[in-house]
Automatic annotation (TrEMBL):
GO terms for cellular component: extracellular region. GO terms for molecular function: serine-type endopeptidase activity. It comes from Drosophila busckii. This is Phenoloxidase-activating factor 2. It is found in: Secreted. The keyword Secreted applies.
Amino acid sequence: MMIIILYRMAKQEKSCGLNKVCSERYLCDDDNNIIQDGHGLINYRQAVFAEKDNGGCVLPQVCCTLPQQPKPLHVEQPTPEGCGYSNPKGLQLTLVETTNEAQFAEFPWVVMILEQIDSISSRSIGGGSLLAPTVVLTAAHIVDSKDVSHLTIRAGEWNTVNEAEPRPHVNRQVSKRIIHPAFNWLNSNYDAALLLLRIPLKLGANIGTVCLPPPAAQFSNQRCLVMGWGKKRNRDLWYPNILKKISLPIVAADQCQSMLRNTQLGQFFNLHESLLCAGGEKDKDACLGDGGGPLVCSLPNQPDRYQLAGLVAWGMGCGVENVPGVYASVPKLRDWIDEQFHLNRISKEFYTA
């Protein structure tokens, strides 16, 4: 899949009538109205799969020779109780000489979302965050068109090609999918879904929940972390095996809107209130395959404890300088999440700091 991104500098558009301007054809809808919300232009960060299998590997994997793995140092860490606690030095082992790779069980709330493709195989379609032993929060665009009976989540995963990890991952079938009622596929507004699991997960050191921020939470001037098993760059032919983590600056809404107007989205693009932005630094970004995954920020005065700020939604390319990535804003989703937990009789204590 090739994505071509066109950049346009801000300029005065030529008038062609009363309240009309000359514009690129792709910036006008079928009724010749200017597109302001990006519909038809945004690129969701879904995994992109080849049409055929590769040497017996399950898509999206390809058959490659592994590089020499960094040597692990065995350590033991106590397991705190409550949401959002990370294991910054890993659990039972610590990677050395690592760049943008998470330690084993560093972020216990990160889950992989799998779609069954035949009787014996499944593939990763994105990421999510564990809110309770029976609830995962992800992006609606990842699961909206999928058959619920074919969806599974995997908790406690780290290295997708190594089964010999200190603690095993756990799979759970999805029993119910709840899409945010205001989700709009065309422009990604309110891009959120809750997945209810058939069997509860047992929480522990490598499987835990993330904290949720209050509805009025702000993350201005913070650097936060995005994580997932998606591509590192748009042009990459493969997906990484080990969970990646990338530090990104939160970008204010007005600044983000201005920066995105210099892309293919055009000078009339308006960033919806249900979205937030992070990134804009060269080669540092979420990418294809990371959709639905978590963007987390540290809790005040607790650098190793995190709250969920956003869900990976879309971007104009990956890691393009001065082009932030776009996320579903979790504070804007908080009231809806609380309501769904109440309706399904699930305790909110699992995500409350």
